[in-house]
Write a structure and sequence with these properties.
With 291 residues, the chain is an alpha/beta fold. The protein is 44% helix and 26% strand. β1 and β2 form a beta hairpin.
Length: 291
C-alpha cells in the first residue's frame, strides 16, 4: 500500500475508533506508528487534525473539513485495489496443497472455509502423503505449497505454524492408562505399533534419542489404522495430538514423561515467486497463527 494511503487510512480509522490504540489494532500497526502517520499528515498539510486527550481523540475544525476527502480517497483506493486483485487472479484460481492426514482432517476444513469467505471462487487440490512425498511434490512443482514437519531437508522456504504434542495411545483398559505420564521405557515392554512411512518418523527418533528400542509388532503409515489396532488391544503407540481430536475410537491418550513434539509448518519452493492467490493464502495462514 502506498505510504500516503496508509496515512489517510490511519487518520480515518483513528477518527472512527476514537483512539490510536483501537485504530492500531484494527490496522495491525503499532500505536506509535498510527500516531506518527497522522503527525506526518499534519506536518505535510500544516494543520492540526486531532486534539489528543486522556479520553481519546477529537477532530479539530480543520479535521472535520478534511475527513470526508480522506474517506473518499480511501474508498477509491479500495476500488482500485479490488480491480488490480481481480486482474492478478485473486478472485479466481487454484491452490494445490500437499498435506498429511491430521492437517487435512482437523485444520484444512476450517482454514479453507474462512479463506473462502473472502475468496469464494478459489479452487483447491489436496494431495495426501507423508513428509517425504510432500517435500518432493513441492520441489518438483506438483503442489504450490505443503504442510510439513519442520525442519525440512530440502531447500524450501518455510513458515512455522504450530507445535503438536506427541501422546501415548493405549487400549482403554490398559494398565498404563492409570498413569498420567508414561515413561518411554515402559512402552518398550509392550507390543508397539509404529507409525512410519518414508524417511522421516518422529516416533523412531524419540526412542533413538533415549537409546531405547521398542518391540515393534506392527508398522503402518495410517494414523487411523494405528488407533483401530490400539482399540482392539493389539498394542500401544505414539501419535500426534492433532490426529487424536474427535477420535471415534475407544482409546486412552496419555502424555510422555519426557514431553515430545513435532513442529508443523508450511513450505514452498525457494526462490519461486508465489502466485497472488497463493501469497494471499500464505499471509492468511501467517495472520491466523499470530492471532
Amino acid at each position: 500500500m502506498d505510504i500516503s494511503i496508509q496515512k489517510y487510512l490511519a487518520f480515518v480509522k483513528t477518527v472512527e475508533c476514537g483512539s490510536f490504540t483501537k485504530a492500531a489494532e484494527l490496522l495491525s500497526y503499532s500505536q506509535s506508528g498510527v500516531s506518527r502517520m497522522i503527525g506526518d499528515l499534519e506536518r505535510e498539510w500544516r494543520v492540526t487534525l486531532l486534539e489528543r486527550g486522556r479520553s481519546g481523540v477529537r477532530l479539530t475544525s480543520e479535521g472535520v473539513r478534511l475527513l470526508p476527502y480522506a474517506k473518499r480517497v480511501c474508498a477509491e483506493y479500495e476500488k482500485l485495489q479490488s480491480e488490480v486483485d481481480e486482474i492478478n487472479g485473486l478472485k479466481s484460481g487454484l491452490i494445490r496443497i500437499g498435506t498429511f492426514s491430521s492437517v487435512a482432517t482437523h485444520w484444512l476444513p476450517n482454514i479453507i472455509r474462512e479463506f473462502q469467505k473472502e475468496y469464494p471462487n478459489i479452487d483447491y487440490e489436496l494431495l495426501l502423503g507423508d513428509y517425504t512425498e510432500i517435500e518432493t511434490w513441492i520441489s518438483e512443482g506438483r503442489v504450490d505449497c505443503g504442510f510439513l514437519r519442520l525442519p525440512v531437508q530440502t531447500e524450501l522456504e518455510t513458515m512455522f505454524l504450530e507445535q503438536d504434542r506427541l501422546l501415548v495411545v493405549l487400549p482403554e483398559a490398559h494398565s498404563l492408562a492409570a498413569l498420567e505420564k508414561i515413561p518411554l521405557s515402559a512402552l518398550c515392554e509392550e507390543p508397539f505399533m509404529l507409525l512410519e512411512k518414508g524417511a522421516k518418523a518422529e516416533v523412531s527418533e524419540i526412542f533413538e534419542r533415549s537409546g531405547l528400542r521398542p518391540k515393534v509388532h506392527f508398522t503402518a503409515w495410517d494414523d487411523y489404522a494405528i488407533m483401530a489396532m490400539a482399540e482392539s488391544g493389539l498394542g500401544v503407540s505414539i501419535l500426534p495430538e492433532l490426529i487424536l481430536k474427535r477420535t471415534p475410537y475407544r482409546i486412552a491418550a496419555r502424555e510422555l514423561e519426557i514431553p515430545a513434539y513435532r513442529n508443523i509448518g508450511l513450505a514452498w519452493r525457494e526462490r519461486k515467486t508465489p502466485s497472488p492467490v497463493l501469497e494471499r493464502f500464505m499471509k492468511y495462514l501467517d495472520h491466523r497463527q499470530d492471532g
